[in-house]
Amino acid sequence: MADTLTFSVNGNNDLFLNDAGDISMSVGIEAVKYACKNAAQAQRGEMIYNLIDGVPTKSTLWSGTPNLTQFEIELRKQLEAVDGVGKIINLQCSVKNDVVSYSAIIQTTFGEVVQINGGV
């Protein structure tokens, strides 16, 4: 099985340089975790060369009453499309003080579990 490879990001979701002065890269399970975080944060229509992928937050959350069920379905689709994701063990979404939060526990194809948390 080929390892998943992606850019590493810091706590501010910014790229950073490694000790050799190169853009830091992650491989394997860490790459899956970063890719899942990125997939969860990507909003449909924001990617200039890919207007189809991304979570449709405008239609599920910001047009009238938030539809958490539809948001969760769309978020699950995006996470399942990430290379290295085996299955979503648990995905929970909630609204508190006008902030939509999510927490996902993901089984990777590497046999390990990762957890991501975030808010929109």
Write the topology of this structure.
Elements: E1 5-7, E2 25-27, H1 29-41, H2 57-60, H3 68-80, E3 85-96, E4 99-108, E5 113-119
Antiparallel strand pairs: 1-2, 3-4, 4-5
Describe this structure in words.
- Helix content is about 25%, strand content about 30%.
- By secondary structure, the protein is of the alpha+beta class.
- The chain has one domain (about 5-120): Nuclear Transport Factor 2, Chain: A (Roll).
- The protein is globular, with a radius of gyration of 15 Å.
Distance between the termini: 34 Å
| Number of separate domains | 1
Q: Classify the beta-strand content into a percent band.
A: 25-35%
User: Structural class of the secondary structure composition?
Assistant: alpha+beta
Q: For the record, what CATH class applies?
A: Alpha Beta
| CATH 2nd-level architecture | Roll
Topology, number of strands = 5
Described by strand count, sense and barrel closure, the largest sheet is: 3 strands, antiparallel
State the shape.
globular
The CATH topology comes to Nuclear Transport Factor 2, Chain: A
Q: How many H/I helices?
A: 3
Mean pLDDT: 91
Strand order of the largest sheet: 3-4-5
